Amino acid sequence: MPTPTATPTPDPIGQALLAYQQGHLSATIAVHSSVADEEVLPAAYFFRSLWEMPEMERTALEECRGRVLDLGAGAGCHALELQQRGFAVKAVDASVGAVQVMQQRGVQEVAHHDIFDAALTQGEKFDTILMLMNGIGLVGTLEGLERFLAHAKHLLAPGGQILATSSDISYLYEDEEGALVFDLNGPYYGEVEYTMQYANETGSAFHWIFTDPALLQDYAEAAGYEVEFLEEDDQQQYLVRLTVR
Question: A single Pfam family, by name (predicted)?
Fold first, then answer.
């Protein structure tokens, strides 16, 4: 196993991606969450080719137009595919290791940013903002969703769109009879806390949100977006297009 490269702050996902890029093809990330048992995420999943991608992701790529901002770009699989199709793509990730991997793989324009980074709004406009792999989750919480929908208007060119995926995880709260059981006075059931670990490196806990379609529609319409659901599957995942009115 390659020795993880030292970074100023813990970056387990980035270190796993770097390890895979360096030839450690069995690199895996341990995923701890507040709603499920520990899961294992193979680093290889971030390097998938077009035909290894879920159909929903392939649909999203087909729907891209103009200059594209790929948020939470990971190892750059979507950015690389769009580059091959002739798109101008800016790939952004908060992981230093992921940024290094994308640069090594040939993504032409890569930046290290949090999605709320003010530097993203300095003059540049995009026709498409792409947020795949349950990418809405990057906003963290319902408050973050409201904040991001306002922030994105500064990033989008006239007529621009957000293409994003998310899931409804209410099924995790079903009892034996299929009724939903959760605290109506508590946080929204789709707000999850995660911790990632690779080798001996554990990252800080972070928030991630899975938004049910009706709630996302409510928030997006209140923020001034037209909402179009492009695709849904039998696992309660969906692809949505948000366009500024």
Answer: Methyltransf_23
Q: Could you list the residue range(s) of the whole structural domain that residue 129 is in?
A: 12-244
Distance linking the first and last C-alpha atoms of the chain = 51
Whole-structure pTM value: 0.92
**26-38: per-residue pLDDT in tens?**
999 999 999 888 9
What is the distance, to the nearest Å, from the Cα of residue 34 to the centroid of all Cα atoms in its chain? 18
Are residues 227 and 242 in contact, defined by beta-carbon separation less than 8 angstroms? yes
Rounded to whole angstroms, the Cα distance separating 21 from 104 reads: 9
Burial 203-237 (b: 16+ CB within 10 A, else e): beeebbbbbbbebbbebbeebebeeeeebeeeeeb
Query: Torsions phi, psi of 34, nearest 5?
Result: -80, -5
Token pair recorded at residue 187: 């946080």
Q: Give φ, ψ of 109 to 5 degrees.
A: -135, 110
Residue 3 falls inside a structural domain: no
The CATH number of residue 180's host domain is: 3.40.50.150
